[in-house]
Specification:
This protein is of the alpha/beta class. The protein is built from 20 helices and 21 strands. The strands form five sheets. It has a seven-stranded mixed sheet with strand order 11-10-12-13-15-14-19, sandwiched between helices. A six-stranded mixed sheet has the order 3-4-2-5-6-7, with helices on both faces. The chain has a four-stranded parallel sheet with strand order 18-17-20-21, sandwiched between helices. β6, α3 and β7 form a beta-alpha-beta unit.
Length: 620
């Protein structure tokens, strides 16, 4: 049979199955192959928080969505064009996201009466017409896998586990991808388990060969490589990029990097990654709890290292007192908050942006600190370097707000020219030339930073601690006027960071837009994709995105005032909008979601269109 090949400019694929079915591995491998092929891509892993949710149930479904294209893209896609469902629960949990005409590949092996009931089906959707709107391919992927790997003598249970590789091979054939790279990966991964290695490689190639020889698929597809700027690229997740940024910051500043961390989803991968880089003078310390982790990091900063602590929202709450101490001591400290759904334990594997006000105000007393946020997985590298720059230059703790969407999602990253990255100057204190007393709270007139004086240096002896400091000498002080001065000075020091923040870039191509969409953090992709959709309709809309949230860029007030309406999409109940309304007295419209998932571009497009229709009535 001759299969017709159809060219596509983009595809969104979602792999879904039980949390033990290896969907994250399948998604990751297809992503790597797409990256090597040269497609632009964006991913969205989604998995349960429970270590092992009940098998075959909707709460136990794990999925991985990949959007790959022959052009620049910004999101992992709203609705899948292809769903690969490994059991009834995976089908039921995801079929509602599909658009009519989507391709559905279903493993029929587990479509038993018992499993259908666990997924909430009274009859099989493969037989009752429920999937009539889709192009359904019902295949016994498990049975074909077991048959293919018989020569390796595995138990039926172990043999069936290779069904994810069969599915990957089939989808790889369907979209014109070779499987040699994944075969090599499996060979290395299971090198010490020859039977498992050979079974998985065989299942992978059997899936590809099935697609090649079966008459089930009359069409296969091709997505050409994307046109990108010349350079060396790799696929990277946000947590890995952030880790590399911290390593780079250590090299740029000449400081040893010390990470004090306690494992917490979704930040743990930063601890895992940094522990691999001892050769770059990185020390990764897994503490017994969140408080010990930040205490160790602060101690390292006091000793002259680049102290870093990583956590999520619940951990920030526990670290709050020590972060306040860092504000008082005025030493560099990078605090990475990979946000997740809350409050309390909340939704550990789901994303949210609801820690902004905690980052701004979640400490006792007046304890200001700079806050920044990356906008994409690759941008986590640059945000980490920027956080370290501010911390070291201005002698202050800095909060970096990533989130689960960025942490686990991935995209192509163009490796930077290391030689072009700006150096970060620690400028450690030196003993006074005139032999006088060292003043630990004397200040740089430009940055208001105090001297960084690690202990053990002759001539730099001074008193330190958490009680209010006297201006200049750093002695303990209860004087009301001095306390007022120190509180205002610490705030002024954070405000001074704005002088080193570049001017904002407003994306308003024609300069005619009356609607401005402002965002921060991981909403960049969905907002940008929605803005593109609106512009393709011939309508004008402007976009500006914030990296620096405290202090805000100096030109932001003028930008907000230049538009008739300002809309702020956030994955919270309107925290940035609240800050902007308070600071600039501008009627910033809130556009919020707290579903544990990122915005969809189609959803935002409709919201922006609604706002555009309302502007003329107000302007008249």
């Amino acid at each position: 049979m001759s299969t017709r090949v159809r060219e596509l400019d983009r595809v969104v694929i979602r792999f879904a199955g039980d949390s033990g079915d290896g969907m994250q591995l399948v998604g990751d491998r297809f992503t790597q192959d797409a990256a090597v092929f040269g497609n632009d891509l964006s991913t969205l892993p989604d998995f349960p928080a429970e270590i092992r949710a009940p098998q075959g149930t909707i709460p136990g479904v794990s999925s991985f969505q990949l959007h790959f294209a022959d052009h620049d893209i910004l999101t992992p896609g709203d609705r899948p064009d292809v769903l690969v469902a490994m059991n009834p629960a995976a089908l039921r949990a995801n079929v509602g996201d599909l658009r009519p005409g989507a391709t559905v590949i279903v493993d029929t092996h587990d479509f038993t009466t018992r499993n259908l009931a666990k997924a909430g089906y009274s009859t099989s959707p493969l037989e009752d017409g429920a999937l009539a709107d889709f192009a359904v391919h019902a295949l016994d992927l498990t049975g074909m896998t077991v048959e293919a790997v018989k020569p390796f003598g595995l138990s039926r249970k172990d043999a069936a586990r290779a069904k994810n590789m069969f599915a990957l091979g089939l989808v790889s054939w369907l979209y014109g991808r070779e499987v040699d790279g994944t075969a090599a990966h499996l060979t290395t991964k299971f090198a010490k388990k020859p039977a498992i290695r050979d079974a998985n490689v065989t299942a992978l190639r059997a899936g590809w060969n099935f697609g090649e020889t079966t008459e089930t698929f009359a069409v296969s597809y091709r997505v050409k490589p994307a046109a990108v700027a010349p350079g060396r690229y790799r696929n990277i997740t946000g947590n890995t990029a952030l880790s590399y940024g911290l390593v780079a910051a250590g090299r740029l500043s000449g400081l040893p990097v010390f990470l004090g961390a306690y494992p917490i989803t979704p930040a743990s991968d930063i601890l895992h990654e940094l522990s691999r880089h001892k050769n770059f003078d990185v020390t990764a310390f897994q503490a017994e709890d969140e408080i010990a982790a930040v205490g160790a990091a602060l101690g390292a900063s006091y000793a002259g290292h680049l102290g870093v602590t990583t956590t999520s929202g619940p951990g920030v709450a526990l670290k709050a007192e020590t972060i306040g101490l860092a504000v008082m001591l005025e030493v560099p400290l990078v605090i990475v908050d990979v946000q997740r759904g809350g409050p309390s334990t909340g939704l550990p594997t789901k994303t949210e942006q609801a820690d902004l006000l905690q980052a701004m105000y979640g400490r006792n007393g007046e304890a200001p600190l700079p806050v920044i946020a990356p906008r994409s997985p690759a941008d986590c590298f640059d945000a980490a370097v920027e956080a370290a720059r501010i911390a070291v230059t201005h002698r202050t703790p800095v909060m970096l707000l990533s989130d689960g969407y960025l942490a686990n999602g991935s995209e192509p990253w163009r490796l930077p020219d290391v030689a072009s990255l700006p150096r970060i100057e620690p400028r450690f204190a030196a003993p006074p030339d005139d032999g006088g007393s060292f003043l630990p709270y004397a200040r740089d007139p430009e940055t208001l930073a105090r001297p960084w004086a690690p202990p053990g240096v002759a001539g730099l002896e001074h008193r330190i601690g958490g009680i209010e400091k006297k201006d200049g000498t750093g002695d303990i002080s209860y004087d009301p006027d001095n306390h007022d001065l120190m509180v205002r000075t610490r705030q002024a020091k954070v405000d001074a960071v704005a002088r080193s923040i570049p001017a904002l870039t407003v994306d308003d191509p024609g300069g005619r837009a009356r609607l401005l969409v402002i965002g921060w953090g991981s909403t960049y992709g969905p907002i940008g994709a929605a803005v593109r959709r609106v512009r393709r309709r011939g309508l004008d809309v402007a976009q500006v995105h914030l990296r620096h949230l405290n202090p805000l860029p100096a030109d932001l007030g003028d930008i907000l005032a230049a538009y008739d309406r300002v809309v702020c999409p956030e994955m919270n109940l309107g925290q940035l909008a609240t800050l902007l309304r308070d600071r600039y007295l501008v009627d910033v419209r809130r556009l919020t979601t707290v579903r544990g998932m990122p915005f969809g571009a189609e959803q935002l497009e409709q919201e922006f269109l609604t706002h555009l229709t309302e502007i003329p009535q107000e302007a008249s």
